[in-house]
Amino acid sequence: MVQDRRIVALFIGSISLLAFIIGGPLIYAVMLSFYSARSFMSEPEWVGLSNYIKVLQDPLFWNSLTNGLTIALSSIVLQVVLGVGIAMVLNKRFVGQTIARSIAILPYFLPTVVACLVAQWILEPNYGLVKTALASIGVGMLDWSSHAFTAKGTIILVSVWLWTPFVVTCVLAGLQTIPTQLYEAARVDGAGAWTQFWHITIPGLRSVLIVVILLRGIWMFNKFDLIWLLTKGGPLNQTETLPTLAYRKSFIEYNLGGGAAVATISFLLLSGVILIYLRLFPIDDAKQGR
Amino acid sequence: MKSHVERLPVDSSRQIPEREPIRPRSSLQHGSKVQESTFWKPFKKLSAKIALYATVLVICLYSLFPIYWMIISSLRPAERLFLDTSLVFWPPDLTSYVSLFRQTNYIVNFLNSALMAVATITVSLVLSAFVAYGATRLRFRGKTMLVASMLFAYMFPPLMLAIPMAAAFRTIGLTDTLWGLLIAHLAISLPLAVWLLWGFFKSMPFDLEEAAMVDGCSQFEAFIKVVLPLSAPGLITVAIFSFLLSWADYVFALILIMSDQRKTLPVALQSLLGAHDLRWGEVLAGASLIALPLFVIFIFCYRYFVAGLSAGAVKG
After folding, report:
1. Quick check: is B21 in a domain?
2. Helices A59-90 & A148-176 angle (0-180, nearest 10)
3. ipTM
4. B304 and B182 share a domain?
5. Which residues of A are less than 8 Å from B73 in CB distance?
6. What membrane topology was assigned to this protein in its record (chain A) (predicted)?
């Protein structure tokens, strides 16, 4: 193959820039986690693993880890169940199918900030829509952000509303790959809708679902903006997760080393998951990520 | 699953029972039970139809209502905002929008966001095209590693990039500048862009470039004149998703930008709510205006949105 020098040069140039933009911060983050600095301005001091030891001894870290896992897991379960359900409905033939499909994936493209503001507006404890609706049936509204359970619930609710469309789109694409003969055969054999769903649809969607669960799991676990916008980790750190903890340490307590250590730990945890993902779906065979 | 596959050949010869002429035979075979079900069939079909449309309606309402509520609330006059929960409101009142433009930096912030989005799209298109093309056409070791690391990179925890960037930008003087923010936006959009375009170039046969090169083009010219025009759909998808990532970014703008004049929309909007007086009217008006460009693009480029999404590649 002829290799044009310009192509080679542009490739090498671009890839080095890319490596510098992404790899640079990554390495610097790991370096920062070994230093301690009182502020952004002061001279950093090498402290070895002490940031990590402090973080790992902090009950708040473990609390944040479990919070993050709880939120991510419950959100994903709901997203997948709801997503598969919606996709099954939208896969049927009906008038206005394209419009319904585009409406159903619309929330996914809304910026997180917008979704969070709208959620806060609707759930406003004093004059929100939910408060008015509850008042009309004689039920009082509580301030969702001041109770651990409702605060977590709201985070999960908003994340489900925003990101279920991702599951819907992937499942809809996956449903097209299941041969229709399988359903015809099952119908002839007298299998009901439910049996068909469990024995044909779900096995047919297996690989799509694994990808979706892994990807969404990683992204949910990384989620900072949604939680920060809705609860800032409150009430009393009850919705604190690793990303918000890293932010709090770095930019509110000005403990850059500690924040970098938390970020590095969550990076290592995620890398494990990503390696499993790449093992399950090697790049060579991957048709665009699936 | 296996049993169905095994029975397939038999079934294909018996595929017809759905059709009309066969039905009398099957009703003969199964007796009264089937006769009853043929009697109820039109009703069952109708009720299934109704149930289907009702479910679709519920799905659409669930997806649309919060957006609708945001827009309708932003169009209420301030004094009715907190008391009025009517679902339809007419005539619309633009006071919230007017005071948003008069009392805040919204227009400046809007321009910042637009500038960031355009710059992110342009740079990531150019860089990712070269990287992705090189990764599919050049021969070197570690190609799979390269592509895998792209996939890896867009799953990074955002703070793993934001914390070191905040520290590094302080020492090199990029803190609180849009240049710094552009670097951050490129760091989140480039991996995705390379991944999408790599899939695109990979599926494009090399014969096309070869033909152009036989005709006297260099490989570079073939890339510019043949490959890029043919990859327009892929490039549009990349542009849309780079736009989305930059336009919606809250994390990096929050951490890297301090002064009001340089804030992008998401952060500026959130800081409106942080003020002591709750300016919900302005906040909702601002939120509607952030969403507006997205809706416009969404309507015209729905196809590319879905293409990018089902490439399994989009961060959210």
Report:
1. no
2. 40
3. 0.88
4. yes
5. 121
6. Multi-pass membrane protein
